[in-house]
Amino acid sequence: MTHIFPNSMAKLRDDRSDDSVDIVMRTKNRPALLGRALSSVVNQQHRQWNLYLINDGGDPAPVDQLVATFADELAGRVTVVHHPDSLGMAAAANRGMTLGTAAFVAAHDDDDSWDETYLARCTGHLLAPENRRFGGVLTKWNKIGEVFDGSHVELREALVDGYDGSVLDFLEVIRTPRIPPIALLWRRSVVNHIGFLNPHLPIYDDWDLIMRGLQIADIALLPDALANYHLRITADAGDYANTITEWQPIYHTYDILYRNGLLRALFDRDPTQLGLVVNLLKNAEHVRGQVQSIQIASHRELSGNDHHLDGRLTTLETEVRESRRLLEQLCAAVGQPA
After folding, report:
1. Which of 135, 183, 217, 331 has CA atoms 20 to 30 A from the CA of 58?
2. Are the C-beta atoms of residues 43 and 228 closer than 8 Å to each other?
3. How many Cβ atoms from other residues are within 10 Å of residue 209's Cβ?
4. Of 36, 16, 206, whose CA–CA distance to 114 is shortest?
5. For the chain, what is the radius of gyration of the CA atoms?
6. Reduced to 3 states, what is the DSSP secondary structure of residue 55?
7. Which of 210, 243, 276 is the last residue of a domain?
8. Per residue in 160-210, pLDDT tens?
9. pLDDT band at residue 277 using 50, 70 and 90 as cut-offs
């Protein structure tokens, strides 16, 4: 008998027991933020780390000056790479990932930061014997809005974001790309197996990596917000702008392009899956029509025909459950490698 479950980490053998971490940090002409990011790293309670700082086409002088400022704290644990020309965010991160050999890999962008306990909590969780089945761990994160005046940043707002529970739901990740890299620690064996970031994706490369990683292993969840995802909320921030706010039209375009690519990969492997998608969409459209019909008639029916409304709601609930079942089948199929 072939068993589908459990299969997390089934394709990999990872017996490493050390807690070493490779930290990959990309930067480009953002010295006002890079200092905060370097402070975030050197202030970690966990000390078994090496930092790979990739300057992707930016001015090297401010980067070298900041690294020299932290020379004592970095204590020879930093490798700085200057790209004369920008290779793009994914390619720059991949350069850093390929330089290290540690048991774990973290992406720490130059505008984000960690709680001082982040690495200690995450490595400790993944090294616990009962958590060997997890390929990574994700904490909640503080989503911080800040303004930049040209020389320094001022924090304006913050809210906690993330997922509840103990295991990341694959379907939730497929539905919406919302995980910032700063909150996720990977086992190196998983990242090496799935092939790092896709350099053909100028955006959504982190979402793509997570979905490919989830095809290999589950990702554990920690309940505390131990990562800080910083967003500049002022317009015209220049080099200091976030791609997610400045590139909204591009995000929309690549959201469609990427999902189209997933469907083509699915249909190329099994053309009959097109029938599942067509029927799923037809069923979803029918359910939406039912919901609209109930909304229109709700006041009249609630005033004296409760039994009639209850019957229609029961029918609707059955159809919603069926749509959910079909959706799970589709997402499971799309989530598999072509």
Report:
1. 183
2. no
3. 25
4. 36
5. 23
6. strand
7. 243
8. 999 999 999 999 999 999 999 999 999 999 999 999 999 999 989 999 999
9. confident
Same domain for 117 and 212: yes
Q: Do 81 and 160 fall into the same domain?
A: yes
Which pLDDT score is estimated for 338?
A: 41
The angle at the Cα of 9, spanning 7 to 10, to the nearest 5 degrees, equals 55
pLDDT in tens, 50-63: 999 999 999 999 99
Counting every residue, how long is the chain? 338
pLDDT in tens, 99-134: 999 999 999 999 999 999 999 999 999 999 999 999
Q: Do both 172 and 26 map to the same domain?
A: yes
Q: What are the φ and ψ backbone dihedral angles of 240, each rounded to 5 degrees?
A: -90, 0
Q: Based on the domain organization, do 60 and 179 belong to the same domain?
A: yes
Please give the residue range of the domain that contains residue 151: 21-243
Residue 147: name the closest of 242, 55, 244 by CA.
242
Residue type, 64: D
User: What confidence tier does 1 reach under pLDDT thresholds 50, 70, 90?
Assistant: low
Evaluate whether 219 touches 138 at the Cβ level (below 8 Å): yes
In angstroms, rounded to a whole number, what is the distance separating the alpha carbons of residues 84 and 56?
Answer: 7
| Type of residue numbered 39 | S
In a domain, 48, yes or no: yes
d(CA 30, CA 24): 16
ω into 181 cis (within 30 of 0): no
Between 198 and 234, the more confident residue is 198
What SS3 string covers 96-148? HHHHCCCCEEEECCCCCEECCCHHHHHHHHHHCHHHCCEEEEEEEEEEEEEEE
| DSSP β-ladder status, 134-148 and 49-56 | unpaired
Pairing of strands 78-83, 49-56: parallel
Per-residue CA distances from 142 to 109, 149, 180, 181, 288 (Å)? 15, 22, 10, 13, 35
Query: 153-161 and 184-187: which strand pairing?
Result: unpaired
Which of 153, 59, 151 is CA-nearest to residue 112? 153
Which single residue is written with the structure tokens 């320094």? 152
